[in-house]
Amino acid sequence: MSTADGTVVGTTKIVDRGPPASRFNLVLLSDGYRQTELGQFAADAQQFVNTLFATAPFDGLQCAINVYRIDVSSTDSGADDPTACGGTGAAPATYFDASFCNAGIQRLLLVNTTTVVNVLNAEVPQWHQALVIVNSPIWGGAGGTIGTTSKATGWEGIAIHEMGHSAFGLADEYEYWAGCGVDTTQNTYTGPEPTQPNITADSNRATIKWGDLVAASTPMPTTSNADCTQCDPQPSPVPAGTVGAFEGAGYFHCGLFRPEFNCMMRNLTGFCAVCRRHITQTLTPYLPRCTAPVFAGSSPLVCLFRTIVLLVVIALLGALLLLLRLLCLLGAETACRQAESLACQIAQLRFRIRNCRSGNADPCVPL
Amino acid sequence: MAREREPQRTLRLFVAYRGTDLRLLDRRSVEMIPPPADSVEEQRAGFWLELRDAKGQTVYSRVTQNPIRFSAELLTDDRERPLARAELEEVKGEFVLHVPDLPEAQVLVFMSSPAGPAALGETASEVARLDLTQPPREEPTPE
Q1: pTM higher than 0.80 for the full model?
Q2: How far, in Å, CA of A165 to CA of B69, rounded?
Q3: Interatomic CA distance for residues B8 and B36, integer angstroms
Q4: A19 has a chain B CB within 8 A of its CB
């Protein structure tokens, strides 16, 4: 039940989008995988990466994220499953000592945080977010900067939901705490505006914090709960993806509103537009400032013609860039920003000339 | 033509907690981009972190999940409503936070609405703080 029960085998950068000092670094670690099962862990880690990068907005933010896999072998498979919570009593010897049944809750799956932090600091010093994948089919997991998940069906989506909390500060959008028909204290929210970007107490079209995403034709509030002692049973009155103000969010039946009827932060469907925008804003500092364009390769004749044209364009833009940099030196902040944007455009044109024959399929090449 | 952003430093804090009693286990400065700041207005509900300088001025704030785990999010057997929460019998554990490594930052303040589902709508107030000028209360964890 300790580091004597396994070995840190090695670390692999499975998604390499640039230097770790400049990217958001996500680390996946294994627990409860025997040495002979580490191939399965590699497949599980890749499955998570595939799901993450197929989920908007992460599909469009891949240039911001490095992913590392730390292979850690354990003596035994699985995780502790104490009988105190109705488990089997299994107590396999694993490196991070993963166990269900914490604080009296069967599905709360925790690991030895100190051991995980030591491994992370040693293997990927610039880590931002970690997820320990535990080799067990029993439902379980936990959120946080160091999250855990078992491998029960749908685990990838739950882990992404938890990242929504820990890495992006998103609130839960469901309208109950313990369950619909179970709660007696979650009828109506009467407090101040919540800080989280994806729930609000304000359903006024003119002042709601995501008002710029609400179409003029969308009613506000978009839904109201007729019985605040219960979860709202009504289906969505608007098409999927409509941004509005849907009553029932942040663990309250009434008084708090969510941006869309469904969302990853409500019921594990895709992220709503408000969450997508917030995640994008959070990850923007980790994107390369300027990336190469994606384009198909061309024939020598086309490249010759294109090079001549682009060189003329570059010369003209270069003159404009000199002017903007001069204005920037004189203190014009707008000119500074325009100069930076123009410099990127010129770098992209040069890249096109240099790679005209081969083309470029990688959207993350930094310039 | 490398156009990466300027190098930045992030403070990684490893903290043990029992209730809202915090103990800094390890603190290290790492060359990596910290989470960007959020603007937080007065009189709000929820949870956020504030870095404050020697004069008590907030120099960084960030809306995030409360790392002190009072409750856990659990998968239900209901496909329509797959998630629910449960309060924990015991509030203790460890967590890691990342904040910008700012020379003027003296203290990290935890702003939170009260714990418990019914109190989530109350205005947030300071519930805990870490003095960043003091060394960790235990030796750094060995690597």
Answers
A1: yes
A2: 13
A3: 12
A4: yes
Find out whether A142 and A109 touch, Cβ atoms under 8 Å.
yes
Residue B96 host element (H or E): strand B92-100
| Residue of A126, A141, A252 lying closest to B30 (CB–CB) | A126
Tokens of A320: 């404009």
Give me the numbers of helices (H) and strands (E) for chain B, helices first please: 0, 9
Pairing of strands B9-18, B92-100: antiparallel
CA–CA dist A175, A252 (Å, integer): 5
Enumerate the residues of chain A whose CB falls inside 8 A of the CB of residue B39: none
At what angle are helices A38-53 and A155-166 packed, to 10 degrees? 60
What part of A 144-173 touches B (C-beta under 8 Å)?
A: 144-146, 152, 154, 158, 161-162, 165-167, 169, 171-172
Give the per-residue pLDDT at A203: 97
The domain segmentation of chain A, as residue ranges, is 3-166, 171-266, 295-360
Could you please state the CATH topology (level 3) that the domain comprising A3-166 is classified under. Collagenase (Catalytic Domain) (3.40.390)
Strand partners, A146: A130
Confidence of residue B138 (pLDDT cuts 50, 70, 90): low
> What are the residue boundaries of the structural domains of chain B, listed by start?
36-91+102-131
* Orientation of helix A333-354 relative to helix A300-329, angle to 10°: 160
Query: What is the value of ipTM here, to two decimals?
Result: 0.93
CB-based burial of residue A137 (10 Å sphere; 0-12 exposed, 13-18 middle, 19+ buried)?
A: exposed
Q: Which residues of B70-93 are buried (b: 16+ CB within 10 A; e: fewer)?
A: bbbbbbeeeeebbbbbbbbeebeb
A185 touches chain B (CB under 8 A): yes
A290 in Cβ contact with A212 (< 8 Å): no
Residue A142, phi then psi, degrees to nearest 5: -160, 150
Q: Considering Cα of B6, then B7, then B9, then B12, what sign does the dihedral take?
A: positive
CA distance A186 to chain B (A): 6
Tens of pLDDT, residue by residue over A217-243, are: 999 999 999 999 999 999 999 999 999
Question: With an 8 Å Cβ cutoff, is A25 touching chain B?
Answer: yes
Q: What is the mean pLDDT of residues B5-31?
A: 92
Pairing between β-strand A129-134 and β-strand A146-149 as defined by DSSP bridges: parallel
